[in-house]
Design brief:
The chain is an all-beta fold. The protein contains no helices and 3 strands. The chain has a 3-stranded antiparallel β-sheet, with no helix packed on it. InterPro entries: Regulatory_FmdB_Zinc_ribbon.
Length: 73
Amino acid sequence: MPIFEYACQDCSHAFETLVRSDTVPACPRCHSTRLEKLLSVPAKPMGQDAAPALPPGCGGCGQAAGGGCPMMQ
């Protein structure tokens, strides 16, 4: 069962729900079935294999030494 994100068109409540192929989801707040399916963004993987985010001014762009780092401006 996939998890989908919805926004209710009647009460504007945003929520996630598990949806089976034979069911019609309803808003948990007002029970309306007038829903807009939202675009889900996958979560960033966590763990030892995930690359850490570089902090601003870290030198990763090669411009930090000369003061030209766009993240430091």
